[in-house]
Amino acid sequence: MEIYGLGIVAFCMYVGSFIGYFIGKTLGISGNVGGVGFAMLILILLSNYVEKNGGWSERTKNGIYLLSALYIPIVVAMAGIQNVVAAFSGGSIAFVAGGVATIGSMFLVPVIGKLGSEKTEK
Amino acid sequence: MISEIISTLFTKYPLVGAFGAVALIMLVSYWFANVIGQKRMGSAIAIVVALILAFIAGKFTGGSKGISDITYFSGFALLGGSMFRDFAIISTAFGAKLENLKKAGLPGSVALLLGVVFSFIVGSLIAYAMGYHDPVDVATIGAGTVTFIVGPVTGTALGASSEIIALSIAAGVVKSVLTMIITPFIAKAIKLDNPTTAMVYGGLIGTTSGVAGGLAATDPKLVPYGAMTATFYTGLGSLLCPSIGYMFLKLFL
Fold first, then answer.
1. Which of A9, A91, B22, B227 is deepest in the core (most CB within 10 A)?
2. Where are the transmembrane segments (chain B) (predicted)?
3. Element (H, E) at A93
4. B176 interaction partners in chain A (CB closer than 8 Å)
5. B236, A31 in Cβ contact below 8 A?
6. Given this model, what pLDDT does residue A91 score?
7. Average pLDDT of the residues in A9-24
8. Residues of B with CB below 8 A from A97's CB?
9. Contact criterion met (CB below 8 Å) for B246 and B156
10. B70-84, B95-109, B141-155, B166-180: the lowest-pLDDT one
11. pLDDT tens column, A101-119
12. Domain ranges of chain A
């Protein structure tokens, strides 16, 4: 059933965030250190394992696909709640620092990307 | 009476209203993308439209939470908030291939470390060049350039003034907004077309919202790879900036 798919992602989110908060507390900084990353890793490991052993039913997968499909609309809503006025009025330093760091980082992408020995597939 | 009922609908069902409003924004944006012959730009245009609406709403209400500060659109805070965002981001990992992750492990980790250090140094240098010479101020602005979460975390830890913390948030927001807007345009130039470069990109830029938005507009298939490294970036930044980063700056200032 579709709800199983939602439940699987919920399970991964809770376990991943638990690890994230645990690391945060251990290091003495408040918050969730990489919890979403851990959750994604758990989902990938889990789904790759299940795939080899028959895989989830079509309807269970649909539950996960529903969430993925909502992803872009959620990003649009997220863009709508940013403090864009503050970004524009933070003074030139915010613009220069944010802008140079962003564009500089982007041009480092192909340089470090070369470290990958072979091209990966989508 | 009619207008009263309509306003009741918006305040009673805020999340449903947000779904409807986002659907409308996307409908108009994809239509526009089709008209100008750039079908793939639909989601990028929708994100820019939402940012423009957030700017107008911010000017109009004086609040800091964009459209959601308007009572009728308070549901945006829930739909676009971190709970749904993280839930949906995690789901995109479904279908990612384990072999791809293994191949991108080394470049991804290098990108993560270099990304935090690079942004912190660039932000600190610019802060110094623009007249901030106190190591606490410089470190806070440098940390804000890492992400708008690392900035306040560092500023609070070091005891920076609220004006400096606000500046650091602004620098991070500029980074996030800029990333969402320019990623689809320069994707080709920086070879952002496969999972490895997507992981490197997520590790170098780091701002989760910016990376997720930028990749969604470029190629939704790349979102899980970029988002995965990006989520570690804020954690690493919060760890390094107030400690090693600050001590490093103190040697020079």
1. B227
2. 12-33, 39-58, 70-90, 110-131, 138-158, 164-186, 198-218, 230-249
3. helix A92-113
4. 82
5. no
6. 72
7. 91
8. 122-123, 126-127, 141-142, 144-145, 171, 174
9. no
10. B95-109
11. 998 998 888 888 777 655 5
12. 2-80, 83-115
Whole-number average pLDDT of chain B: 86
Alpha-carbon span B247 to B136, nearest angstrom: 10
> Could you tell me which residue, B56 or B153, shows the higher pLDDT?
B56
Q: Determine the residue of chain B that is closest to A5 in CA distance.
A: B91
CB A60 within 8 A of CB A66: no
Helix runs in chain B, H state only: 2-12, 14-35, 42-61, 75-79, 82-91, 98-129, 135-146, 150-158, 162-186, 195-205, 208-218, 223-240, 246-252
Q: Comparing B26 with A79, which gets the higher pLDDT?
A: B26
Q: Which of B115, B111, B155 is nearest to B135 (CA)?
A: B155
Query: Who has greater pLDDT, B27 or B229?
Result: B27
Q: Touching check for A14 and chain B: CB below 8 Å?
A: no
- Residue A108 has which token pair? 């480092």
Whole-number pLDDT of residue A31: 66
Inter-residue contact B226 to B215 (CB < 8 Å): yes
Q: Dihedral angle at the C-alpha atoms of A4, A6, A12, A17, nearest 10 degrees?
A: -140
C-alpha distances (whole Å) from A17 to each of A13, A41, B167, B168 are 6, 12, 29, 26
Q: Which helix (H) or strand (E) holds A67?
A: helix A58-69
Residue listed under structure tokens 């992408």: A109
Tell me, rounded to whole angstroms, the distance of Cα B249 from its chain centroid. Answer: 26
Sorted by where each begins, the domain ranges of chain B are: 2-80, 98-252
Spatial contact of B245 and B120, defined as CB atoms under 8 Å apart: yes
Instruction: Measure the CA–CA gap between B224 and B221, rounded to whole angstroms.
Output: 7
